[in-house]
Amino acid sequence: MEQFFKLKQHGTTARIEIMAGITTFMTMAYILAVNPGILSATGMPAGGIFTATAVSSLIATLLMALLANLPVALAPGMGLNAFFAFTVVLGMGYSWQLALTAVFVEGIIFIIMSLFNIREAIVKSIPQNIKNAVAVGIGLFIAFIGMQNAGLIVNNDATLVGLGDITKGTALLAIIGLVITGVLLAFKVKGALLIGILATTVIGIPFGITTIPKGWSPVSMPEAPIFWQFDFSKLFSLDFFVVFFTFLFVDIFDTIGTLVGVTTQAGIIGKDGTIPKVKEALLSDAVGTVVGAMLGTSTVTSYVESAAGVAEGGRTGLTSLTTAFMFGLAIFLSPLFLLVPGAATAPALILVGLFMMTPIKDINLKDFTEAIPAFLTIIMMPLAYSIAEGLVFGILSYIFLKALTGKLKDIPIVTWVVGFFFILKHLL
Q: What CA–CA distance (Å, rounded) separates 296 from 284?
């Protein structure tokens, strides 16, 4: 493990990496329950979707560990699964087979883009100030997700969002978990986030939030996933292109944003803004998407929850390898992992938001052609509920501000190209 993952070089140990990998898994295990719930609305079998979710996550995360040696986990992306089910199938009226075809073709294009370093060039085109802003924006985004999962922040018709009832239920449990985890962090306890998740899950039993059904068994046999259920009949239609391009766009910039944010937080991004083995990381994502489509699930992408493992000290692919192993266990132990409520993982996600604020000190706030794009990147991620849209506002404002203030030399050619596709995406 030392030789393969270079643990000493990264200032970590096998124990730290394994704890970090388990923490990452615990914060993203909700996808095993949520993804089947969303995609089954299209008529796809929920049991098969669960297996496809676990297997595609395992394969993609394993590739990230072995090829890229990065502490980043992958799974079918939230938002993309909702677009798949509610927009493409239920909204536009296409079959789920056609939607899977769009995901499959997108994955093939991803692989080609990764092999020819196109996605790597896109990563390099993002200005350094915006890369720092991405980490901060993802931190706010992931904290917001945690607060939503716990019911601390709820829908409010008058103000869009508001404070939930913090005197009872999931919100109160999350606050208790936040205090426990905060105290553990203050005492510098190793594995504080994971211990906090487990303690909050146990406390949730008398609250009636962590529920153990009658006749419960931690072991269950998985259902077979659907396989190769594609429909290529509308491959060259305009509507198919719009669906395919949307999947492609969101996945590219969600993945790039996550990789930039997590590696920045981990302190393993280069001084020139380069991500180590970014080509292999992007290829792992692309292969995961193709495998996921073949098994019957929506686009597989890098997860912002990986930042929870990084906060626990994860710095290498051993963190990802551990998370992949946990997804393997989940295939047969799904009832055990699904006991953990959202309120128990919420404190970890909220505190990860704090940890990811660090790069804000490196943002140039004196030059407004740098500060405004960075600010828009940060604020739009949680408010638009999208890493990709945060990058859209950041990059486009950077281009316009630099161009209109006579600083054209600051804009690389690839950044112009990326900006063009941002505009094209919204026009489509």
A: 18
